[in-house]
Amino acid sequence: MKKVRKKLTRKTKKRSLWLVFFSWLFKLSLVAIVIVSPYIIYLDSVVQDKFSGKRWTIPAKVYARPLELFKGQKLSKEDFLTELNALGYRTADSVTNVGQINVNANQVTVYIRGFQFYEGAEPSKLVNVSFNGNNVNQITDQNNNVVPLIRLEPMMIGGVYPTHNEDRILVKLDQVPPKLVEALVAVEDKRFYKHHGISMIGIGRAVYTNVVKGKLTQGGSTLTQQLVKNFYLTNERTLKRKVNEAIMALLLEVHYDKKEILEAYLNEVFLGQDGQRSIHGFGLASQYFFGQPINELKLPQYALLIGMVKGPSVYNPRRNPKLATDRRNVVLDVLAEQNIISAAEAKQAKAAPLGVIPQGRLGISSFPAFIDLVKRQLREDYNEEDLTGEGLRIFTSLDPIIQIKAERSLDATLKRLGKRAENLEAAMVITNPSTGELLGLIGSRDRNYVGFNRAIDAIRSIGSQIKPAVYLTALESKKYTLTTVVQDEPYSVPLAGGKEWTPQNFDRSYHGNVFFYQALAHSYNVSTVKIGMDIGVSNVLKTIKRLGVAADYQAYPAILLGSASMTPMDVAGMYQTIASGGYNTPIRSIRNVLNAKGEPLGRYPFETQQRFDTGVMYLLQYAMQRNMREGTGRSAYNQIPAATNLAGKTGTTNSSKDSWFTGFGQDILATVWLGKDDNSNTSLTGATGALQVWTSFMKEARPTSLRTPIPQNVVYAWVDANTGVGTGEGCPNAVQMPYLKGTEPAPELSCTKSDGSTTDWIRGWIN
To answer: For residues 503, 507, 513 and 514, what is the CA-based torsion angle, rounded to 10 degrees?
Structure first.
């Protein structure tokens, strides 16, 4: 009995100990719950606030102009293919999908992508574009119906990024190839649809593998955990971070379905670095590495991106193509093992090249000077938070084909200059004279340079670039005509304090009696100063203001020869008014702005104001055309067809510190500056430096020949080419010259007729 009683006592004591243990365990659990619950509630609020609200700050995206095609347009097949290539269109034997092209002789078949423009959505369409030389011949659809106009989607050329420099293109799950999503889950988390945020099987497998190998080689994180880490947490390897990650992953799966989580992951995952800009999400990665929208990606391409998730730096296909290829092939093997693709598909995909586009070829972040100007203009109208977080879309006037031709022309000219190009810097401004739109901008000889933008910040003496303003003022006064005789001989200007200024011609010689237009065409300094002093320096300064230059200058005589300092953008704006026939049209780079939903926010309309009589401006353009034919710009016609009428003016400053040239055709105006940042001698004149860049560019850009209509107040009169005296048609040395009505010379009563060969070639330049 005693033994039985002792056994019962022991059992009772054991039972009591277990009860005490479980009691304490229960109490401790309650305490833990009480302590931990507020923290879990806090984490839950963090998860929901960000995931349900504004998940990402989306930078403003900046686009070039959309290429518009129509019959008769000036566009070569080669330039068209250059733009298609930059937009990521791919050659195919048969064009059946969006983003494909096929080239057959002078015809290009292209399946254009749709795009949301300012005016509305443009649908995708299949068209045939045929070319005749350097012009579009015809556009037809797949049913051979004539299409009057098509518009390609614009190229994205940059963005306005937040301080953390994250960039992404948001995509919806239904915009992503289904196989990409299936492959991502298979490689990164094949139990994704079975777990609730964390996978005990995955954790166990990772622990086992790490123990067997004796080092940390595998993680057990699910896609949800990876998203939590990227979305909410840091990369620090601490127990606290891992616990937070697990709790938040569970909470995320409680509140949101798998599709929402997958979509967020596709947009959040880090996939590379572009300088200071970090590439997030498959949408942007597709554009960055392949130049294509994500919906056009094929198996080898998205297998590469999926492989990069494991290590974007290690498997960067541009830096480590061998490692990237091996990793892509591992992904393809996994897909084949899980029967997502066939063995044959895997084999074919492994044989495919990586297909990655060259970085910075012609697209994102390729045009820093232009993007710099756009940002400056945007910040005048929008808050920084809107530009860096609201997903605005900025549509600009940049013509990528014009821009790249300008860059190549500068590179080629600097190479030809050899040692004279050492430490030489450059700027170039290219506009459309009719609209004032900025077509291209170069701010440094290094096209990728991000910093001091010489096109809009370098304030330099402009030399003879000022002279058209002097001659324009003289023509407006009606004291001068194009054939007024000016004496180019020693001349001194009295200054304060009894001093004198004696200007010199560049060639250190004098040229006697010259016509007014010859003085400008040959850029004679002495003649220019005489004319300027006669009409008044203050009047010349008023003309400069009316031409569009905002700066104020002192009325010193030296201003007549270009002692004034301007930026290349200022000079281009001044000549813009001349090229447009007297209409001041401010240079603009932005066309319009859309919000993230495609709704219009702002438009930057065309603005113009007539500031000069068209007849007077017609005469000035004539003189500037003579500069190109017989004056300081004549070397341009060594490369440009003689039938192309162009107008322009060189500029050289003292000691050849600055080399300038500005010239224009009907549809393109370009200002070029060459100089050194330390303001030292370049050994270049406007003709031997800047004009060479301009000529090389215009040869490739193929400007439309000037065809200015004759204004009603302009008449042509026959004059003697040697004396400027009025004469008759058929008389010796008779040529036609334009005049404002009432200023033309009266014809002589008689003359000795020539053999019938009349010189009427001047009129042909203008009409």
So the answer is: -100
- Give backbone dihedrals phi and psi of 274, rounded to 5 degrees, phi first: -115, 85
**Which amino acids are annotated catalytic?**
188, 464
> Kindly report the CA angle at 605 between 602 and 609, in degrees rounded to 5?
145
Q: What is the pLDDT of residue 26?
A: 52
Do residues 590 and 533 lie in contact, with contact meaning Cβ atoms separated by under 8 Å? Answer: no
Average pLDDT over every residue of 714-718 = 95
pLDDT at residue 34, as a whole number: 56
Q: What is the 3-state secondary structure (H, E, C) of 11-29?
A: HHHHHHHHHHHHHHHHHHH
Angle at 236 between CA 235 and CA 238, to 5 degrees: 135
Tell me the HSE value of 612 on the side-chain side, using a 13 A CA sphere: 34
Give the pLDDT mean for 463-487: 96
Distance CA 77, CA 85 (A): 12
| CA 613/CA 385 separation, integer angstroms | 45
Alpha carbon distance 433, 573 (integer Å): 10
CB neighbour class for 239 (10 Å; exposed up to 12, middle 13-18, buried from 19)? exposed
Edge-to-edge strand list for the sheet holding 60-63:
156-160, 60-63, 393-396, 590-594, 600-603
> CA distances (Å), 119 to each of 151, 382, 602, in order?
12, 21, 12
Confidence check: pLDDT of 21 > 70: no
Q: Please enumerate in sequence order all residues whose Cβ is within 8 A of that of 747, keeping only pairs 6 or more positions apart, or say none.
A: 717, 718, 726, 727, 728
Residues 285 and 272 sit within 8 Å (Cβ to Cβ): yes
Query: Torsion angle, CA of 8/9/14/15, rounded to 10 degrees?
Result: 70
pLDDT of 350? 94
Identify which has the larger pLDDT, 438 or 164.
438
Report whether pLDDT(433) > 70.
Answer: yes
Whether the CB-CB separation of 235 and 229 falls below 8 Å is answered with yes
Note whether 648 and 579 are within 8 A (CB).
Answer: no
**Two tokens, residue 627:** 């500069």
Asked whether 82 and 362 are in contact (CB, 8 A), the reply is yes
Name the pTM for this structure.
Answer: 0.84
- Collapsing DSSP to helix, strand or coil, 494 comes out as strand
Q: What are phi and psi of 741, to 5 degrees?
A: -55, 130
C-alpha to C-alpha distance for 91 and 88, rounded to whole angstroms = 10
Q: What percent of the chain has pLDDT over 70?
A: 85
Question: Which residues in 702-732 are b (16+ Cβ under 10 Å) and which e?
Answer: bbeebebeebeebbbbbbbeeebebbeeebe
Mean pLDDT in residue range 87-102: 90
Which phi and psi (to 5°) does residue 338 adopt?
-95, 10
**Angle between the N-to-C axes of helices 239-255 and 223-232, in degrees from 0 to 180, rounded to the nearest 10:** 110
- Residue 7: what residue type? K
Contact 639, 696 (CB under 8 A): yes
Torsions phi, psi of 620, nearest 5?
A: -65, -45
Tokens of 306: 């999926």
Whether residue 252 is predicted with pLDDT greater than 80 in this model: the reply is no
From residue 130, alpha-carbon distances to 103, 124, 275, 488 in Å are: 10, 19, 40, 55
The reported pLDDT for the residue numbered 13 is 55
Question: What pairing do the DSSP bridges indicate for beta strands 90-91 and 115-117?
Answer: unpaired
Q: How far apart are the C-alpha atoms of 589 and 606, rounded to whole Å?
A: 11
pLDDT value at 49 more than 50 = yes
Mean pLDDT of all residues in the chain?
Answer: 86
The span from the CA of 375 to the CA of 590, in Å, is 10
Q: Does the pLDDT at position 35 exceed 80?
A: no
